[in-house]
Amino acid sequence: MLIINYSNFKLESGTDEAGRGCLAGPVTAAAVILPENFSLPLLNDSKQLSEKIRENLRPIIEEQAISFSYTHLEPALIDKINILNASIQAMQESILKLTPTPEFIIVDGNRFKPLNNIPYSCIVKGDSKYMSIAAASVLAKTYRDDYMNKIHEEFPMYNWEKNKGYPTKEHREAIAKYGITKYHRLSFRLLPEQLKLDF
User: What is the CATH class of 12-187?
Assistant: First the structure.
């Protein structure tokens, strides 16, 4: 059973990101402030939910949240500042878009950087413990999936509609065959050693 609040503050924001381990596409974060009486029985860590359930939950979260936002950070920035810093920046930018400003932040994972003197706590596996982080994980995942479905139409040979930019065998074989696109992260190891560009 997910817990509604970690702190004693009414305006507590949960934040999470999606797409950290991908070879292509943005890292996407979301931040959500939920009301105290919020209840959504199906809500859980987005990785535990089917695509259909995530899509059904998103409008309910958005309708009932006090505030929500999401942010995409592009591969060029990921390559420039590294994926950890990009993940944190995406979460921070999402939090800064919230109105009202949260009084406390709970972050999925174990790394964050101070933001405007707002107190925060990092919670490992927070998306399976706290509602606002779970809600943020659903928004981050679904908005990122929408983005990958859109760029799939531009480069269908990588099948991003299905793999969402993750390092599947099919995705790596497509990189070996067709090369890279503007959506690939150049700082990531796009091909394992045995998949040199020779077939």
Answer: alpha beta
